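Apologies for my clumsy wording, but can you show me some protein sequence, whichever is easiest, together with the matching structure tokens, please?
=====
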Amino acid sequence: MFDLDEFLSARIPITKAMGITLTEYDGDKLTLFAPLGPNRNDKGTAFAGVLSTLVTLAGWSYTQVSLEHNGFEAVAMVAESLTSYRRPASGDLWATCHGPDLETRRRFFEQLANTGKARWKLEADLRSRDVTAVHYSADYVAIAKGRKDPLAYEPQMEPLTT
């Protein structure tokens, strides 16, 4: 089974320093947590780059875990995004990506199976102290592993050692 926390820690090292962990995935949504402490700015609130990273990772993680859960070996990546900062985040951070409706999911996986590529739009909200601080919308792309596509970016990485 795919271990998202282990993957993020090993392959996206900044997530370890940020303290990002998976708190929920139920097929309909995925939530990541990060403590304010290591992610605060000079004003005592979360740094905007952290907020952007967290919502982007929530969408990417939702896509990647959904791919794994549905038996696909594919590379997920963000293609286009819009981040709206609504208010400062002054406490711990929870970024929740909301999955698309069931018909959109069905079409996404059907297209991936038939063409080796698929795209869907996801939305995420980042909450801090029970208030929405960020709203995020993005298109994520999945490309089947092994597919020779000029737009596919599949870096060959060796396991990281510390």
In short: Residues 48-69 form the longest helix (22 residues).
